[in-house]
Amino acid sequence: MRIGLVGKPNVGKSTTFAALTETTVEIANYPFTTIEANVGVTYIAATSPCACKELSIKIAESGRSVDSDGDRDGSICQPRTGACNGHERLVPVTLVDVAGLVPGAHEGRGRGNQFLSDLASCDALIQVVDASGGTDIEGNPTGPGGCSPSEEHDFLIEELAAWIDGIISNGWAKAVRRIQSEGEAGLTNFLHEQLTGIGGTHSDVAVALDIFRRENPDIPTINIWGDEEKRTLSHILRRHMFPLYIAANKSDLADEETYSTLQTQVKSYGGLFVPCSGETELALRRASKVGAIFYVPGESSFEVNPDATLNDTQKRGLSELQDRISKMGGTGLNELLRKVVFERLEKIVAYPVQDETHWTDGDGRVLPDALLISSGTTAKGLAYAVHTDLGDGFIRASDARSGRVIGSEHELEDNDIIKIHAKT
Ligand SMILES: Nc1nc2c(ncn2[C@@H]2O[C@H](COP(=O)(O)OP(=O)(O)OP(=O)(O)O)[C@@H](O)[C@H]2O)c(=O)[nH]1
Ligand SMILES: [Mg+2]
User: Fold this and answer.
1) Any idea where the domains of the chain sit in the sequence?
2) Domain 1-49+87-165+243-345 adopts which CATH fold?
3) Could you give the CA distance from residue 146 to residue 134 in angstroms, rounded to a whole number?
4) Ligand 1 neighbourhood includes 200 CB (under 6 angstroms)
């Protein structure tokens, strides 16, 4: 599960990345602070309680004592990555923070195409926009009104489509020849070959072509497709391969009027638009890390640690942060990520285990992995998500709850605990 943070320069992509991954990266109020992409992991809470809840009930019912360390509000799993408290399991999501994108990037302007290839393997993109409108289209600070959030969104979707257009147009004459010799399948195969390098699957292409034909019933035959037809198809491919959601950042500085046009535009096509403040989230996570406050990401208030020694400036800073998040109802970032992953991408959680009785791995670790997978993923698909060798050697799987054997094509459900039997 990989999400790219995109947008024009100086909107707060790296600030958002640093907050969510709790890492240190360069942040500054000028364009092109980030050159090489930053890649890191953030954690979001799974929608269902961790399977360790059921396990502790099972253990208690069998008369054995539950081995909980007491500090984790009943959780008894041992996550390899993430954490679990009170049976709320945090699952990993990889984030990619790329260089800012300016008009003409697909032709090499700004940081150009290198940046675009950093997005290749992402499941979705989050466009960070400057909802306060305080920077121009190239990211230079201007004060209010430097750019409208809808302007920066419009150009970004054009740039992304132009990037894909460049990839599919390369060798277009071949596509025309292939459709003459292989028929319709020739076009699908050609597009698949062109797009495989940026993560496009055969089914992505087939679905996009289907939408294209449905939306454009009068489309001419491919040998007379011009730039317009290719660009329209590129937009559909982009929407399908890289769905884009909006983080209306710097909303601590923004009045709603500045971003209402974009908000209405996004809502009109059923998109996702969430007012956010990366800077506020970063300040809260840092204050929490040094023990000054108790803050749970996503909440709209925090507690000051009574044992922390704070000077007047720090106290004032914390009180300002408190005002901000109570006004905004939280910093928006947790809400945005959870909506993207669970509502829009419809991801579910699966727990692969080696020991189906104790729900552990080979080292006795309880429920070590909680993997985010697409709904509809099969048992064999989960095997591949764990490791290519496990997928290649797949024999069968079993449902660790019921002990029932399940076949390779069985579709998994949220919170399934699965043992995979494979040739080694
Ligand atoms: N007020 C406010 N400022 C923010 C917020 N998020 C980021 N900033 C500021 O915006 C400026 C740019 O932040 P960066 O995170 O470096 O922006 P970027 O999009 O990564 O920029 P490039 O790497 O240059 O493309 C910095 O001065 C941040 O402190 C926010 O939520 N509110
Ligand atoms: Mg940056």
Assistant:
1) 1-49+87-165+243-345, 170-238, 351-422
2) Rossmann fold (3.40.50)
3) 5
4) no
Mutating to test ligand 1, I would choose from 8, 21, 27, 274 the residue with most ligand atoms within 8 A of its C-beta, which is 27
Q: Answer whether 0.70 is exceeded by the pTM.
A: yes
Q: What is the pLDDT of residue 144?
A: 83
Q: How far apart are the CA of 119 and the centre of ligand 1, in A? A: 20
In this predicted model, what pLDDT tens digit does every residue of 18-47 receive, in sequence order? 999 999 999 999 998 998 999 999 999 999
Question: Where do we find the tokens 């209010």?
Answer: 144
Is residue 21 within 6 Å of ligand 1 at its C-beta?
A: no
Span 351-422: which CATH code? 3.10.20.30
In short, whether 29's Cβ falls inside 6 Å of ligand 1 is: yes
The ligand that comes nearest to the alpha carbon of residue 132 is: 1
How many whole angstroms from 12 Cα to the centroid of ligand 2?
7
The Å distance, Cα 271 to ligand 2 centre, comes to 24
Residue 96's pLDDT is 97
Residue stretches of the chain with pLDDT short of 50: none
